[in-house]
Amino acid sequence: MDATITLTVDGRERTLTVDTRTTVLDALREHLDVTSPKKGCDHGQCGSCTVLLDGRRALPCLALAVAHDGADVTTADGLATDGELHPVARAFLDADAYQCGYCTPGQVCSAAAVLAEAGEGWPSAVTPDLDAERVTLDRSEIAERMSGNLCRCGAYANIVDAVASVAGTDGGAR
């Protein structure tokens, strides 16, 4: 059975007809030719497909497109403004926080969400003060929050450095 849905992808409203079993990831990649989110495991385990779905990070490989009719989807490409890289993407380049680059779009979306979540005071499993208005993003906090995004090349230390640089911290000692 098919359904017609509308998604706003990287600021552009797109209407498409999909099988009701189509995931948001497949709608993006196969129907709209948006290839920034990568299909890694297709089981929600690697984070390569991470996007911002209505402003919150999400794994589009686990989300049915019909359940998100009308949603706002931001990919790593959509984080850029006026042809300039988002500060997180720039920090990834500056910190050499990628190797093969396959996971990088998902990592960048996740890192942008980490900064927003910490800024809003959302605690993680390693946050020492659950009542703090703002969370300090030290290395353990960043690593915990980014743990849902795997990097097969092992660029984790540089990824933490990149996120810390955008957060305005040194990320603590290595």
UniProtKB/TrEMBL annotation:
Swiss-Prot/TrEMBL keywords:
Iron, Metal-binding, Oxidoreductase
Q: Disulfide bond: present as a keyword of the record?
A: no
According to UniProt, the name of this protein is 2Fe-2S iron-sulfur cluster-binding protein
Domain 2Fe-2S ferredoxin-type, residue spans: 3-79
Q: Which InterPro entries match?
A: 2Fe-2S-bd, 2Fe-2S-bd_dom_sf, 2Fe-2S_ferredoxin-like_sf, 2Fe-2S_ferredoxin-type, 2Fe2S_fd_BS, Aldehyde_Oxdr_Iron-Sulfur, Beta-grasp_dom_sf
Q: Which domain of life is it from?
A: Bacteria
PROSITE patterns the record matches: 2FE2S_FER_1, 2FE2S_FER_2
